[in-house]
Design a protein that fits this description.
The complex is a heterodimer of chains A (277) and B (81). Chain A is an all-alpha fold and 277 residues long. Helix content of chain A is 71%, strand content 2%. With 81 residues, chain B is mainly alpha-helical. Helix content of chain B is 88%, strand content 0%. Chain B has 2 helices and no strands. The model of chain B has no long low-confidence stretch (mean pLDDT 89). Classes of the chains: A mainly alpha (277), B mainly alpha (81). Chains A and B meet through helix 7 and helix 8 of A and helix 2 of B.
Chain lengths: 277, 81
């Protein structure tokens, strides 16, 4: 702790960092350290799967304990998605709910002492901005899913018609190539903004905590007592809030993009009412 | 006068904190307006407070994202100093 340089981008040591410092010359540990973000992603997935399989083991009609809390979460999320998408949102709840839970667990892993949240990993790119290694695939999955769902719901003709801006008037047909370009750029900017928002928020919070831990260790060493000062405690609560809010907002934005891209269904309800009446 | 390399670092050293400050200023103004509107709406109809809070959170996250972009640029270009 005393001999380390003070970086602007500090990071708390993870389990694999400590293992690497303990076993310097082991190639297995070096390989484990190199892919540590992958192991943490797998840990999040396995944890979610274990909790889900434990909760659905008995499938009682009147649920108790784990099954009850899981049903509370799933039903609450289903209500939220259906309040934006309407009753046809039920088929999209699994994907959006999985996104939310997975991102939530990954964000919260950064607060556990020896773990690191995989949403904070990034690689430097030649353009200057860092490429977030975990949130970019997540955003890509979300936007590709939205486009595929819209393709499936509206058909190829309906999808292209929507991308051209749904032209009804002759003038709108003239500007439709421009609108096609704008929509395509909009899809790419959705990917960029989703990934950068999640990455920036969680990375900023985790780095804030790491820098405060670094400063408090320097301060504790200078003051000689107390030996440990957990000055990062209020920021842990802030990181808890940010993690939950960012996961929720990722899912919320995916739902809103779905609501915008899927074909509007009000005519079907009016037609069925007209046929029944 | 400093040489080329020092000039570039000096310019970055002035420009990057200035950029983050200006972005934070604009974001604070926008967030203040959003939260103020949410407060007015909650005062009019206190039973809708949670719905208004959720919508306000969503709006604040979208506004804050622009400041986060500025922070990311600051970290990546600040690393080049």
């Amino acid at each position: 702790m005393h001999g380390e340089e003070v970086h602007a981008t500090a990071e708390l040591p993870t389990l694999f960092d400590l293992l690497h410092r303990g076993f310097e010359h082991s190639r297995l540990v070096a390989w484990l350290l190199r892919w540590q973000n992958l192991w943490f992603c797998l840990l999040a997935m396995v944890a979610l799967m274990v909790v889900a399989s434990y909760g659905t083991r008995r499938k009682a009609i009147i649920p108790t304990r784990t099954q009850n809390s899981l049903e509370f979460i799933v039903d609450g999320f289903n209500q939220f998605v259906c309040s934006i998408l309407g009753p046809r949102g039920r088929q999209h709840t699994p994907f959006i709910g999985t996104l939310f839970l997975y991102i939530l667990v990954m964000n919260l892993m950064g607060l556990v002492p020896l773990l690191k949240s995989p949403t904070t990993t990034s690689a430097p790119s030649p353009l200057g901005l860092p490429v977030p290694l975990t949130t970019f695939p997540l955003a890509l999955c979300a936007v590709v899913y939205v486009n595929l769902a819209s393709l499936k719901a509206a058909g190829l003709k309906g999808y292209v018609y929507h991308m051209l801006g749904s032209p009804t008037h002759f003038v709108l047909w003239l500007v439709s190539p421009l609108i096609l370009m704008i929509h395509t750029l909009g899809e790419f900017s959705k990917i960029f903004s989703l990934s950068m928002r999640l990455f920036g928020n969680i990375f900023g919070e985790d780095m804030l905590i790491a820098v405060i831990v670094q400063q408090s260790t320097i301060l504790a060493h200078a003051l000689h007592w107390p030996p440990i000062m957990p000055l990062q405690l209020p920021f842990l609560f802030l990181a808890l809030l940010t993690g939950v809010v960012q996961a929720f907002v990722f899912a919320l934005l995916t739902t809103i993009y779905l609501a915008l891209m899927l074909p509007h269904e009000e005519h079907h309800e009016e037609l069925s009412v007209a046929h029944a009446g | 006068m400093p040489t080329g390399a020092e000039q570039y670092k000096a310019m970055l050293g002035i420009a990057i904190p200035f950029m983050v400050g200006v972005t934070a200023f604009g974001s604070a103004l926008a967030l203040g307006r959003a939260v103020s509107a949410a407060m007015d709406a909650t005062a009019r109809q206190p039973e809708a407070a949670i719905k208004i809070l959720i919508n306000m959170m969503a709006g604040c996250v979208l506004i804050e994202a622009l400041t986060i972009y500025a922070m990311i640029v600051a970290f990546s270009f600040g690393g080049k100093i």
